[in-house]
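> agent: user asked for a holo structure of the chain below bound to magnesium ion. Plan: (1) validate sequence alphabet, (2) canonicalize SMILES, (3) run complex prediction with ligand conditioning, (4) return tokens. Step 1... ok. Step 2... ok. Step 3 dispatched.
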Amino acid sequence: MKYKAIFIDIDDTLLDYIPCCRAAFDVAMKSTDRFTDRAQNTDRYTSDELFNIFFEISGRLFSEAKHGLHTIAEVMELYPQEFIAAIGYPESAVDPFKHAFRAAWGTTHTLVPGAKETLEALQAKGYRLFAASNSFGHLQRSRLEHAGILHFFEDTYISMDIGYDKPDIRFYQEALRRCGLQPSEVLMIGDSMTTDVLGAQAAGIDARFFDRKSDNLFALIADL
Ligand SMILES: [Mg+2]
């Protein structure tokens, strides 16, 4: 085997980001409405419109974070603030929305097709498996557990625990230090060209791009 271990991204590689996001969003909106005067806002937006506003704001902020404009920790504070302001809810709704979203996020677990089979195959071939993701550690581990795939991982390297966000080379260096492997012994797999592929390569780690639009995850690892 060329590699001893696989680092694998979580969102949009193993877990399907949009349905997870929508599930947490719907819970958070229900909870937030209890703290606001719905009479002022009722029927201004459909729930799909609200989600689209939320998704656009959070997507832009996460994209800016990939390019170093914010840390992931900052984005986690910014997107609830920007969303609540954008839909005209009072500022007092920011914290209830943020906390409800996070709590619900920790239980979201829609799998990308083939994710479980891919992990089973890699484990059967003898690879050590590590999750590598930008987010809160406890929430990502909770989601992997709800999805029934946490047990495949020897450890989880999540940016808020590691102290650096992908694609920062220090994220990958710290992950390598923790598992005691050399860059040449690891392959990174993920759906982001910036954070997963270029980030890992900058740290001397080979990487494979998982294109959610056209690739089959299981096929992507068939030759390993
Ligand atoms: Mg991803």
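> agent: step 4 complete. Summary for user: The pocket of magnesium ion is lined by residues 9, 11-13, 190-192 (CB under 6 Å). The two ends are 7 Å apart (CA to CA).
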